[in-house]
């Protein structure tokens, strides 16, 4: 059965628009049309926005058990989640999205538990909420005051939801919701393990290629704190590597389908892939996990803890590196022959950084700038290279304009 998404908010916060945008991005999401006893407002259409029924018809449906939950939101105005709508969407494998009031959202989360992901959407301020309600032109001044009073009470329940989204900018709010929704509704999750020290264009290109080829719904770049089979020398702080991977994923062609994860930073050390797989399988039952590895990691896979179990239970995809000895790959992996073969490596980028630092300390700022610029080309998320380039620019600008040092 499909997962469920619950969006609740004070009236005027923009939750309905966010749900509609998510449906456009994720075709498997279907809107659960609620029933209401009120009359249509503005351009609302029966069967699309709500099932508009009379108060008498609503009461009859409630008595017959047609609702998963229902509530009299305002005196004489009832809203309810139709059981038939939810069952029909789930039976065809869709993801059911609810657009309900705050009390209804809390009730639905209580009914569906971990099968549902709940969001509380809020305007950035009460003043902005008032402006939006007045701008809709569908409510009387008395109704607007009533909605604002109700919004203040509803906001106190925001902590009962899984996520809070402040809708100060619609595009940003939709992007934030998309990044949260994508892994929740994904059936196939590819775990892209690596130190990403640093993350570079080649990493992103392979992740994009995997999404393009339909190998998974979501590719998660799992940033390893320390590979037990590798030396820690030259390993950048783990949080810096994770933050850079986040930036790289967000800048990819598939910013919702490619994400970064720090899950291994929360698990006992040393970090073993089989332990991560067990943890994620327990945390997200029903997901079909696969593994994406570079050729260098694949060559040592046979020595990993419980390697036979990994190879026997999870599809393992390997993107080869130029010059790889394929004979070192263990049996059972699938080599991605058509994956982009880019002559880029984290080792090469680290060497360029070291060279740039040497030149910088020696006062050879032109050579240093060339090295750091190359790092930025290969790894646009390198804050260290960006910092050095900024300092070099300041130094050279000063030299070019200072009359004492012409």
Written account of the structure:
- The protein is an alpha/beta fold.
- The chain folds into three domains: 4-182, Rossmann fold, CATH 3.40.50; 187-335, HUPs (Rossmann fold), CATH 3.40.50.620; 346-401, no CATH class.
- The protein has 15 helices and 15 strands.
- It has helices at residues 15-25, 55-63, 83-91, 102-112, 126-136, 141-155, 170-185, 201-212, 238-250, 273-283, 295-299, 307-313, 346-361, 365-378, 383-401, and strands at 4-8, 29-31, 35-36, 51-52, 67-74, 77-82, 95-100, 116-122, 163-166, 188-194, 218-223, 258-261, 288-294, 316-319, 334-335.
- It has a six-stranded parallel β-sheet, with helices on both faces.
- Helix 8 (201-212) links the parallel strand 10 (188-194) and strand 11 (218-223).
- Helix 5 packs antiparallel against helix 6 and helix 14 (365-378) runs antiparallel to helix 15.
- The chain is globular, with a radius of gyration of 26 Å.
- The N and C termini lie far apart (73 Å).
- The mean pLDDT is 92.
Strand content: 15-25%
Radius of gyration: 26 Å
The percentage helix is: 40-55%
Low-confidence stretches: none
- The coarse overall form would be globular
For the secondary structure, the number of strands is: 15
Order of adjacent strands in the largest pleated sheet:
12-11-10-13-14-15
Q: What fold name goes in the CATH topology slot of the largest domain? A: Rossmann fold
Structural class: alpha/beta
CATH hierarchy: architecture of the largest domain: 3-Layer(aba) Sandwich
The N- to C-terminal Cα distance equals: 73 Å
Summarize the helix and strand pattern as letters: EHEEEHEEHEHEHHEHEHEHEHEHHEEHHH
């Amino acid at each position: 059965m499909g997962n469920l998404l619950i969006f609740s908010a004070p009236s005027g916060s923009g939750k309905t628009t966010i749900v509609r945008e998510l449906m456009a991005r994720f075709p498997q999401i279907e809107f659960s049309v609620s029933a209401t006893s009120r009359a249509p407002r503005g351009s609302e259409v029966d069967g699309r926005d709500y099932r508009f029924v009379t108060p008498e018809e609503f009461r009859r449906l409630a008595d017959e058990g047609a609702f998963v939950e229902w509530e009299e939101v305002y005196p004489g105005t009832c809203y309810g989640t139709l059981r038939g709508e939810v069952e029909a969407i789930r039976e065809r494998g869709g993801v059911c999205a609810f657009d309900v009031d705050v009390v209804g959202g809390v009730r639905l989360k209580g009914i569906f538990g971990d099968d549902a992901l709940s969001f509380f959407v809020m305007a950035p301020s009460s003043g902005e909420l008032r402006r939006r309600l007045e701008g809709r032109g569908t409510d009387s001044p008395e109704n607007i005051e009533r909605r604002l009073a109700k919004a203040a009470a509803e906001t106190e329940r925001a902590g009962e939801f899984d996520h809070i989204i402040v809708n100060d900018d619609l595009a940003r709010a939709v992007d934030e919701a998309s990044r949260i929704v994508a892994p929740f509704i994904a059936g196939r999750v590819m775990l892209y393990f690596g130190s990403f020290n640093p993350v570079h264009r080649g990493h992103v290109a392979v992740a994009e290629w995997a999404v393009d080829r339909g190998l998974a719904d979501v590719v998660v770049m799992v940033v390893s704190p320390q590979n037990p089979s590798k030396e820690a020398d030259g390993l950048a702080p783990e949080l810096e590597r994770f933050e850079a991977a986040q930036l790289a994923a967000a800048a990819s062609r598939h910013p919702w389908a490619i994400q970064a994860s720090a899950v291994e930073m929360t698990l006992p050390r040393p970090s073993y892939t089989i332990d991560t797989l067990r943890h994620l399988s327990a945390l997200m039952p029903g997901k079909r996990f696969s593994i994406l590895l570079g050729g260098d990691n694949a060559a040592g896979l046979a020595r990993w803890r419980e390697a036979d179990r990994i190879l026997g239970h999870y599809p393992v995809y390997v993107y080869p590196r130029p010059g790889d000895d394929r004979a070192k790959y263990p049996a059972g992996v699938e080599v991605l022959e058509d994956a982009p073969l880019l002559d880029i490596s984290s080792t090469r980028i680290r060497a360029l950084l070291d060279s740039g630092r040497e030149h910088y300390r020696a006062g050879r700022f032109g050579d240093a700038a060339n090295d750091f610029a190359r790092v930025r080309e290969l790894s646009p998320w390198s804050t260290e290279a960006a910092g050095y380039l900024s300092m070099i620019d300041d130094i050279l600008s000063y030299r070019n304009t200072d009359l004492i040092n012409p």
